[in-house]
Structures are given as C-alpha cells and as structure tokens.
Amino acid sequence: MKKQEVEAWTRKICDQIKKNQQVEDGHVELKADLIDAKKAARRIAGMCNAASPEPCLLILGLDEKKGATGVSATESDVVDWKAQVFAEFAEKQPVVLQHVSLEVDGKTLHAMLLASDEAPYLVKNPTGQGAIAREVPWRDATGVRTATRGELLRILVSTVRLPEIDLIGGTLTVQRGKLHDRSRDDTADSSFWHVYVQFMVIPRTADPLVIPAHRCSVLAHLSTDSWACDSWLCESVTLKDEQGSPQSQIVVASAAKMSITAYSNFNEEMFRKNAEAHLRIVIQPAGSRNPIRLNPILEAAPPQGKELARWIIPPDFMSDETYIAALQFRMSDQGA
Fold it and tell me: Is the pLDDT of residue 333 over 70?
C-alpha cells in the first residue's frame, strides 16, 4: 500500500466520523494523542495478532467521537514514542510499512500502516514482576485481552495470504432502461445503477489464489457535505477475467487483471448528481479468513452516451504502478 493510499484511507475514516459512522474495526485503532508506551504496545499487539496476516492502521490525533484532535507532540517526539512502544515488544515487533503525517481540519494526524504477517506478537509484562514475563494480547471488539489457545492456533495454522490489489479504474453510472434485461432504452421510464471496477491482483506467494464469484459483494452510497444516503447492496455481481469473460471463479497464479460489475435498481431518493460516490467491494478468496476490501471514492464526471450520471475513480486514488493502465482504461472506457 502506497503513502497516498494510507492517506486516502485515513481521510475516509475522518469523513466517516463527521457523519457519525462507526469506523474502528479489527484493522483500525484510533488514539486522540500519544498514550503510555506500555499500553500502546499491548493494544497494537492485540490488533495485529487478531488481524494477522493483514495490515493494520494506527491513527494518532483522531478520536472516534470528537474527530481530529491533533497530536500535541512534535515529529521527533512521535519518533521517540514509537521507539519506546516497540521496545515493549518481546522478540518480534510489527513492521511499520508506512508512516504518514497529514493535516485534517487544521490538526496534525499521524497514520501508521503496520504489517501483521509475523504474528504472534508478544509484549513484556508491564510491571516486570511475577512469574509471567510475556503476554500474547488479542483485540476483542474495542478491548484487549490475552489470546486463547484457539486464537493462537488460528494465528499459527497456515492460511491464504491476501494478494496486493492495485486499482486500475472504475465507474458508477446511472443508465436509463430496465434492470433485469439491462438494455439501454432511452425511452424507458426506469433506470438502474451500473458499477464497473477493474483492478490488478498480485499474489504474495507462489500458491494459486482462488476467487469464487459468489463470495464477492458490492455496496454503494452517495454523500455531500450536508447529505448522505443509506448504502445499497448491488445485485448481479459478476467477476470477469482479463479477457472480460464472466467466470464462476478465477484462479490467479501470477499477476492478473480482472474486473467486477454489478447492478442495482435506481432510487431517486438516493441520488444527488454532484455528490461524492463511495463503493465498498468485498472479495473473499477461498481459504482466507479475511476478505479483500476495496473502498474507492469516486468523483462526478460528465455522463457519456445515454448515461444520466457518471462517477469515476480519480487517478490520485490509484497506485503509481497502475497509472499507465489507468490512462488506458480511461481512453478505452470499458466501463461505459
């Protein structure tokens, strides 16, 4: 994950807080400011153990209820604090994949993307007394406790590692016609939503990755600064291979391009032409405990052809490696 993707993830969480949406999950930890290093180490270890082998996000200077509070410490103080926190780990500590500082509402936030693929992570006994010298923490909802035997086995038993995902392009459009035959009829009274997202899948191991189509889902919603609609679940989700052919499952042995399409009935109450569009795409590979989550934010764009409205994934949401492919996507506009 690139720095701009970490920043985009962080800013999306800030937006969710402003809309009073729940944001903390098993992969995200928010702290309004620096906390005691021993407590921080235990919380980080618990989050990384429970989320392993997927990366986690620690955001400093952000409160789930108050929003952006900012970190009162200087950049060098944050670096020193980070060293103190990791000194509380025993043997192995999570690797900081990215450390991004950003301004939100005039406040300075620090977002750290942490690897968790070397779990279990142990922390030292904070008192330094007694027979118990180390603990394997485990995050349970928003709390942290000691891991159970079953949870330790879950970490240690091999599981499929999720691949890297690079977005290439995507569109959300409103098209005039009937949903079930999906014909673009300019004279039809009804309309439907159409989602198209193309991405590159890059396996992290030599083992083939199996992605069943029935384990894919797409949610969408629109929002402005003063309005937001409820998310709606798209139907007829289709997984397509590099040639654009629908597949019941796709086996990925090496880097491959694929796409997802989905449709939904159009509802006027959920529509604002100049709103920002959000997609939540969930892909559950076979043999993996955790799903792949794609959460692109799309910006309004001029409609094409018989479209009533169009949103596109902006280039700055994509990684550098897929920028050329994104340009090709825009030129060919396969989502239209």
Answer: no
